[in-house]
Amino acid sequence: MEQALKGLKVIDLSQVLAGPYCTMVLGDMGADVIKVEKFPKGDDTRSMGPYINEESYMYMMVNRNKRGICLNLKKDQGIQILYKLIKDADVFIENYRPGVTKKLRIDYETVKAINPSLIYCSISGYGQTGPYKKKGGFDIMAQGLSGIIDMTGEREGKPVKVGIAIHDIAAAQTAIQSILAAYIHRLKSGIGQYIDVSLVDSGLAWTVWEAAAYFGKEEVPRRNGTAHRVSAPYQGYKTKDGFILIGAANQKLWEKFCIHVVNKPKWVVDERFLTNSIRAHHVDELEIEIESVLKEQNSLYWLDLLDRHGIPSGPIYSYDQTLSDEHILSRDMILAYDHPVAGAMKTLGFPAKLSETPAQFKNPAPLLGQHNRDVLTELGYSEKEINDLFANNVFNN
Q1: Per-residue confidence band for 393, with pLDDT thresholds at 50, 70 and 90
Q2: Which of 45, 62, 90, 217 has the largest count of CB atoms under 10 Å?
Q3: Molecular function (GO) terms listed (predicted)?
Q4: pLDDT in tens, 120-171
Q5: Is 44 a catalytic residue?
Q6: Which of 372, 366, 365, 391 is nearest to 82 (CA)?
Q7: This prediction's pTM
Q8: pLDDT at 5 over 90
Q9: Which CA distances in Å does 102 have to 78, 105, 106, 110?
Q10: Distance in angstroms (rounded) separating the CA atoms of residues 44 and 347
């Protein structure tokens, strides 16, 4: 099957997570992604473990389906090579701190003169404008500024960072949808454009329920553990041998839960639990009542009973349990492949299942500078010129 983005040429100057995740997805969908790594050691994640035969697993996780070159952009010859790559590219992605691309002579205005139809995407911590634009920004700082850390954790506990790099992935997803929107616009108009994506903005845009509460009633989200702010029961509950999740928030599900699962029909008419909003105001009392029943049986017993009565529920897995779950495996969310140095490897699969243009695993993450000579040959450099560039430390071999 032909892929949706076949023929799209992407030049990727990003590193670590947000940018590389974005370009990985574009590569999964068929784009020709050329990853340009800094000379001489490459993407910073190459120095992060765990390592398999001295190859970083972190690097390999988000750089599949790309070709890789390692280019010295402090050399004028390196910049000229990059300009040649840009000349017929469709998309250019970078995640330098604002201002750095201007110093390197690869800012949008400079490269737009080389390729006026280019779609240029910058990903940074705080964006290209505003008083914080020059600050260095990682995911954890974005979680703090967006309020997400303050609203995460147990009610009486310390603020807690979300377990994954949520702002990095949010920025990657924002970049993907923006690039594809810009590409559709260019197909219709022939005009490229500049895209400014920040980690802070991207994660903040996901706080829609919390914004509604604040704009509507000036409610500041508080830490609630696993509980929902306006729905109940909708959280994790302790059983005899662990914890499970129950989502019986609407009235029909609540009544089925009371009558058929926990055999407590009196809860249906209890004044504390009459409606969803009332239950949410008495969430602590509700938790005590529910757990007093759930503690009598183990988690599997309750999950089976909840399933039989059509009430949304689920386990709280450790990550190893997640990666061995039969449903996860049946959805092809774990892929096995062979890496030329690391050997037999596993990676996460493709979350979207497209019937006509599916994502595909074509090649593992490139070794450092693996495609230097191939890409330079495609640009018209002779073997002698390539050897001279190598001798002059413009790229590694």
Answers
A1: very high
A2: 62
A3: CoA-transferase activity
A4: 999 999 999 999 999 988 999 999 999 999 999 999 999 999 999 999 999 9
A5: no
A6: 372
A7: 0.95
A8: yes
A9: 15, 5, 6, 8
A10: 20
Looking up tokens 């002579």, which residue turns up?
Answer: 105
Given phi > 0 = left and psi -120 to 50 = alpha, else beta, which region is 393?
Answer: left
Domains of the chain: 9-205+328-391 (3.40.50.10540), 234-316 (3.30.1540.10)
Active-site position among 32, 107, 168, 201: 168
Cα gap 226→221, rounded to integer Å: 13
**Residues whose CB falls within 8 Å of the CB of residue 187, separated by 6 or more in sequence, listed in order:** none
Rounded-to-10 torsion of CA 216, 222, 223, 225: -50
In the chain, what percentage of residues exceed pLDDT 90? 97
- pLDDT recorded at residue 107: 98
Q: How far is CA 394 from the centre of its chain?
A: 32
Confidence tier at 229 by pLDDT (50, 70, 90): confident
Contact 12, 35 (CB under 8 A): yes
> Which residue in 117, 8, 19 sits closest to 62, CA to CA?
19
What is the separation, in whole angstroms, between the first and last Cα of the chain? 35
